[in-house]
Write a structure and sequence with these properties.
Number of strands: 13
Order of helices and strands: EHEHEHEHEEHEHEHEHEHEHEEH
Strand content: 15-25%
Shape: elongated
């Protein structure tokens, strides 16, 4: 897995793919970079601000960031923002007040993007988005001009969703279910652009792979197991005629909650196909040895993203290397037979 640096701002090693945006003449691109261009000669200080920092993915991301910071001799402060938009802005202001050189952030709500960008710019602090996109002018990131997106380290939502949709299609075909008896639950927090990208790609990939038009039900959640379980339970109650269910979503939390709701609703494991995204909750089902509707999950390693984000910020601050528009980490589909070998760590 990834342990090396980005070199010259345009190349990644160990399987990372890099997408570099075109240079722009507009002030929007300058705003998106949101940091002074002066190289830091002394010790570098960075704040890593994360939404939902107690989720296993983000715990791993923080660990990767801390390990890379130790290797590079960086002072790193990790802050759990939860889902608090107000805390997001106050913590960025605190980082500025504490003379941090850079801020890496996973925003709980993209609506606070303009405030985050402005605070960083005013304070002369370099800004890098982790995982979720941020648009400088507050536009929905999915509709934001590329030159107004803050540089981002994470995963390709389209690629991830495509892998989920293809695996769900393979499981559906193997099960031999009738199209008319089956429904898909797509569960995600619908104002988070990267989540929408994942779900949309899953739908497209499933349709392409199967050639079937299976009924899809979009379920809005808070991207937590409890929220997904509650919302999916209500959906199932309203659709009792459905015999077989396919569940996917933005993350493992959505799929795990959905699978649990279906189990509680009386559906057996052989009538449910759940394909998670993260694998850190899916593996708990597999480790139990009991039949489960969680058939597979895409393993995404937050540790690698945290390390890469810190390395990218270091290269910018210490060596003046321009941050890439986007840098993506690799993913791997796992299931009950392969998750241990792949190195998945289950959530506590």
């Amino acid at each position: 897995m990834f342990r090396s640096r980005i070199h010259s701002g345009v190349a990644l090693t160990a399987g990372f793919a890099l997408v570099v945006g075109l240079a722009a003449c507009s002030s929007g691109k300058e705003d998106a970079k949101a940091g002074a261009d002066t190289k830091v000669t002394g010790k570098i200080s960075i704040s890593y601000l994360q939404k939902q920092g107690d989720q296993e993915y983000f715990v791993g991301e923080a660990a990767g960031a801390q390990a890379k910071a130790k290797e590079l001799g960086i002072d790193l402060k990790v802050v759990n923002l939860g889902n608090d938009a107000n805390k997001t802005v106050s913590e960025v202001n605190a980082a500025v007040a504490q003379k941090a050189n850079g801020v890496i952030i996973v925003v709980p709500d993209p609506a606070v993007g303009p405030q985050v960008v402005q605070a960083a710019k005013t304070g002369g602090v370099a800004l890098l988005a982790s995982d979720d996109q941020i648009c400088v002018d507050g536009t929905d990131p999915s509709k934001c001009a590329k030159d107004k997106l803050v540089p981002r380290i994470g995963f390709s939502g389209t690629q991830m969703g495509g892998e989920v949709g293809k695996r769900a299609a393979a499981e559906f075909t193997k099960a031999g279910w009738a199209e008319a008896d089956t429904a898909i639950i797509s569960a995600w927090k619908q104002d988070v652009t990267v989540c929408t990208d994942r779900v949309t790609a899953a739908k497209d990939a499933f349709k392409t792979a199967t050639g079937k038009t299976v009924k899809n039900i979009d379920v809005g959640t808070e991207n937590t197991p409890t929220s997904a379980q509650d919302k999916v339970a209500a959906t199932v109650t309203a659709n009792r005629a459905v015999k077989h269910w396919i569940v996917w979503g933005c993350n493992d939390e959505n799929v795990s909650g959905g699978v649990t709701a279906l189990q509680n609703g009386g559906y057996t494991a052989d009538n449910v196909i759940g394909v998670g995204l993260g694998a850190y909750l899916a593996c708990k089902d597999w480790g139990s040895g009991k039949p489960t509707g969680m058939k597979a999950a895409l393993f995404i390693n937050g540790y690698e993203v945290g390390a890469l984000a810190v390395q990218t910020m270091f290269d910018k601050l210490k060596n003046g290397v321009a941050m890439p528009a986007e840098a993506f980490a690799p993913t791997k589909m796992v299931d009950a037979a392969t998750w241990k070998e792949a190195g998945v760590k289950c959530s506590a």
